[in-house]
Write a structure and sequence with these properties.
- By secondary structure, this protein is mainly β.
- It has one domain.
- It is about 10% helix and about 50% strand.
- The protein has 2 helices and 10 strands; from the N terminus they run βαβββαββββββ.
- The strands form 2 sheets. Strands 1-10-5-4-3 form a 5-stranded antiparallel beta sheet.
- A hairpin with a 3-residue loop joins β8 and β9.
- It is globular.
- The mean pLDDT is about 90.
């Protein structure tokens, strides 16, 4: 079993991380900010996009999701929009992770979710990690988006 472990230290790395995280789902209650440690983390169920490129039309394999954790270090502050923290069971579907440079190397990481929800992290620099936590499970549905 291949567990994904990625580190992002710049904007290009975050773009790769974002591609692997598209359509990951999380609960509002799985978002955590530890100001003393300057760390923001979220646990999620990640769609395994990297396996989709290995699928063959003549012998389709099931789609997969994996439990993963994404965390950012050196986080100075967190802002949210469209997320009600009093509803911990609400589901958020991640669309993209973006970065806007401030006074280098600082800037703002934005986690963009469906339904006009977003989280902005003011960071000293980009320092993120994505780690799969366990075995994959089959899912019949493959995320699909209108362009």
């Amino acid at each position: 079993m291949d567990f994904l472990k990625l580190v992002a230290l710049d904007e290009e790395d975050l773009a790769i991380l974002s591609a692997h995280l598209q359509d990951a789902v999380t609960k509002v209650g799985d978002l955590a900010f530890e100001p003393g440690d300057k760390r923001f983390a979220l646990a999620m169920n990640r769609f395994v996009w990297e396996k989709e490129t290995k699928r063959r039309a003549f012998r389709p394999t099931p789609h997969e999701r994996r439990r993963s954790i994404l965390h950012f270090d050196r986080v100075q502050s967190v802002r949210t929009a469209g997320i009600d923290r009093s509803r911990p069971n609400d589901i958020l579907s991640l669309l993209a992770v973006d970065f806007t440079m401030g006074a280098a190397p600082s800037g703002t990481v934005e986690l963009i979710f469906s339904g006009n929800a977003a989280i902005q992290l003011d960071v000293e620099c980009v320092e993120a990690r994505l780690t799969d936590l366990g075995a994959a499970w089959e899912t019949p549905a493959r995320p699909d988006h209108d362009l």
